[in-house]
Write a structure and sequence with these properties.
heterotrimer; A mainly alpha (264); B alpha+beta (136); C mainly alpha (334); B: 136 residues; alpha+beta; Ubiquitin-like (UB roll); three-stranded antiparallel β-sheet; 3 helices; disordered C terminus; C: mainly alpha; two-stranded antiparallel ribbon; 13 helices; 62% helix
Chain lengths: 264, 136, 334
């Protein structure tokens, strides 16, 4: 951690700063990793029109990641660029939710994951909508406006797959079941998160935000007769990453590692 | 395929946008405030909801439109009949070009001894208020 | 000016209508003649007009190859989306490839409106019955390839596409305007990648030169062998306006100076601009290579077609969902 504080961090309680850093990093990593997985569909999605739609969603996520990494870089004030934060870490140092560690999968897996993630992220963003940290509050406002389209798209497809008996519904349910143990990892508690709540940086604890998320998605799941992800063990939900992510890391760092320090 | 009249508008029997058939939806876009809606192209979709999603992607993902309309092609009624749109009898009295007065004006000026007035641009001057202030 | 009160004589529809060939009463030969007259005089054709078989098939073949090329062209680039070395490059490349898919959608839509269903076109492409452009049959080895392709392959393509903006087939002409506008962004992205690397590390500079060495041959072959304007049916019907050689010369005129100003060497010792003629002389492109490649015997042809076949099979269930859903009840507000 830096000993000097950036101009931006002057407005934050020093005790809370480390936890805020962890929060923003986790959000940025979430958007970065899901943006990567979804961008894999570019050029090979099931329908041409849907290919373009999924690519826009992925670009939105990457754009959110970029903005969050840039905010983090400014907050740290250590001269690191957003790209350096995004790319120049070992796999174990990434803080994205385990929900996003599953690899692209088929269309049902992608839709299931998008739905679970977008709704969970929605709850988190709502918890930040009135953050005492103005730059974050302003960024969250912009992100929420773009996310509306994401939730619309994910909901449309969730319903379409769930209502189609046979292979589509079966694949959807299989994906939801595979993702179930990790579904709530977006809400993995952060060390010291009580400080965030006390200082008004976030409205509620992760556990409270998780409860809101479950309340939001339950009516649709019940209506479509889909299995709700059970409450689970969120331990290490952001720190234990598996092989699919290590493969992804190998890919997205390959060009940078081929010529370290080069400008691209 | 032999020489033929254009393919039928309805690609197949049931084109009611209920999610059962992929059919073309025409997309209209407004580029900026005040512009008219202009035809942009078409997307294939099974219903209005996805047609709107796809229209946004093809014709709005770059912030290039401020509004879009999406219409099932099968719902569009068209007219291209030349008898109705380019009817043969004279209609010049409905257009400015149907009123040519050049010769008559020349005769009138000659008669009055007046020259042709200089061309003026824009609005006639408004009457001014007291102390010569122009009324906006 | 004629007396404004005079009445036009009552003419037969085919002599009065703007598009007389649409008159069903006329004989085939008469319709063909009127159609040809219309097109040769610069007239435009819409999807709902009558067309002679030769014209309809000519446009369809042209548009279909273009659409296929956009769809296959995605494959060499999409693996680099995963490896893009900065956030901005990743966004730019994702957006570029997305645009190519968008172009495929626009072009397949045009072809569909001419009567060929999308699935039939995919069948023919994947069975090797229809073709796609040579450049998309080659491998990519490094990020330098990404820059060279986005800059020079797209540039060669845009030279051809700009010449199509006045095509007699109006839907195609309109689509070309949209496509050219979108492609111009790609070229800027590509050039930015190349210039950044050329002014970067020694390794980056070397990678760009090496990529250029590999891509120059396919680029020179891309517009096709020289053909006689008088014998070209696509030019006769005004579907396209320029010959392959005209397009190649245009490409060289614009881009050779831009390549050389970066200190790059073009791997053709015979490439020289005639001072008096303004025409480029160049080493004869390998037309055998072109023929081999476009008949799907290029280095990556079969692998990419197989990839698309597998992908299509694996995603068929999703298309079936779209087509076979039971009637949906109104969606709950999100």
């Amino acid at each position: 951690m830096t000993t000097t504080r950036s101009a931006l961090s002057a407005s934050i309680d020093p005790a809370a700063e480390a936890v805020l850093d962890e929060l923003i990093l986790s959000m940025a990593d979430d958007e970065f990793v899901i943006g990567f997985s979804d961008s894999e569909w570019t050029g090979i999605a099931p329908i041409l029109e849907e290919d373009i739609a999924m690519s826009s969603l992925a670009q939105d996520e990457l754009g959110h990641a970029r903005a969050l990494y840039e905010l983090l870089a400014e907050l740290r004030g250590a001269g690191q660029t957003a790209d350096a934060i995004a790319y120049d870490r070992e796999p174990a140092d990434y803080r994205h939710a385990r929900l996003l560690d599953h690899g692209r999968g088929d269309w049902a897996m992608t839709i299931a994951r998008r739905y679970l993630y977008d709704t969970a992220d929605g709850s988190r963003l709502e918890g930040l909508a009135k953050s005492s940290f103005a730059p974050l509050r302003e960024l969250v406002d912009k992100i929420r406006r773009e996310e509306r389209y994401h939730v619309m798209h994910a909901t449309t497809w969730l319903e379409r797959l769930a209502r189609h008996p046979g292979e589509p519904r079966d694949r959807l349910i299989a994906s939801l079941e595979e993702l179930a143990p990790d579904a709530a990892t977006v809400f993995t508690p952060l060390d010291g998160e009580a400080l965030l709540v006390e200082t008004g940086l976030i409205a509620e604890s992760m556990a409270a935000l998780e409860a809101r998320w479950r309340a939001t998605i339950t009516p649709l799941f019940v209506g479509l007769d889909l299995p709700m992800p059970p409450p689970g063990d969120l331990d290490g939900g952001r720190t234990t990453h598996g092989e699919p992510f290590r493969w992804l890391w190998g890919e997205f760092t390959s060009v940078r590692r081929s010529d370290p320090g080069a400008i691209w | 395929m032999t020489d033929q009249t254009p393919p039928d508008r309805d690609l197949d029997g049931t084109s009611d946008g209920d999610g059962r058939t992929l059919e073309p939806w025409e997309v209209f876009r407004r580029e900026k405030d005040g512009d008219p809606m202009r035809h942009g192209g078409s997307v294939m979709a099974p219903d209005a909801l996805l047609a709107v999603h796809y229209a946004r992607e093809l014709y709005g993902r770059r912030q290039e439109s401020v509004a879009l309309w999406v219409v099932r092609r099968a719902d569009i009624h068209d007219l291209a009949d030349p008898d109705l749109l380019q009817p043969p009898l004279d209609r010049s009295f409905k257009k400015p070009g149907g009123y040519v007065m050049r010769d008559k004006l020349a005769a009138a000026r000659q008669q009055s001894g007046q020259a042709k007035p200089k061309a003026r641009s824009g609005q006639p001057k408004r009457p001014t208020g007291p102390a010569g202030t122009a009324d906006r | 000016m004629t007396d404004p009160l005079a009445l036009d004589p009552v003419l037969a529809p085919q002599d009065r209508a703007r598009l007389p060939f649409n008159e069903a009463d006329l004989s085939h030969d008469e319709r063909f003649g009127r159609f040809e007259e219309h097109v040769l005089a610069g007239g435009k054709v819409e999807s709902t007009d009558w067309m002679p078989d030769e014209y309809r098939q000519g446009v369809l073949r042209f548009v279909e190859m273009h659409a296929n090329s956009e769809l296959m062209g995605v494959l060499p680039e999409r693996e680099w989306i995963m490896r893009a070395p900065t956030l901005r490059r990743k966004l730019a490349l994702t957006a570029k490839v997305q645009d190519e898919v968008g172009h495929a959608q626009l072009l397949y839509r045009l072809a569909e409106d001419l009567g060929k269903p999308r699935e039939a076109m995919f069948d023919d492409l994947l069975a090797g019955k229809t073709k796609f452009h040579n450049v998309f049959h080659y491998p990519t080895y490094s990020w330098a390839d990404v820059g060279i392709i986005a800059w020079l392959v797209d540039a060669a393509a845009i030279v051809a596409q700009q010449a199509l903006r006045d095509s007699s087939y109006a839907p195609y002409a309109r689509t070309m305007k949209k496509i050219c506008w979108e492609e111009s962004v790609h070229i800027m992205h590509g050039r930015d990648v190349v210039v950044t690397m050329v002014t970067g590390s020694a390794g980056q500079r070397a990678a760009i030169q090496e990529a250029l060495d590999r891509w120059w041959g396919p680029l020179m072959q891309m517009h096709g062998p020289r053909s006689e304007r008088a014998k070209d049916r696509d030019i006769h019907w005004r579907i396209k306006a320029k010959t392959s050689e005209e397009l190649r010369q245009e490409f060289l005129t614009i881009y050779v100076p831009r390549i050389r100003e970066l200190g790059l060497t073009i791997p053709d010792a015979d490439l020289v601009l005639g001072d008096a003629t303004g025409i480029w002389a160049y080493g004869e492109p390998d037309w055998n290579e072109l023929r081999t490649v476009v008949t799907n015997h290029g280095p990556k042809s079969e692998e990419r077609l197989a990839f698309r076949r597998d992908n299509r099979a694996a995603t068929q269930w999703v298309r079936d969902t779209i087509l076979g859903s039971p009637a949906a009840s109104p969606t709950a507000a999100a």
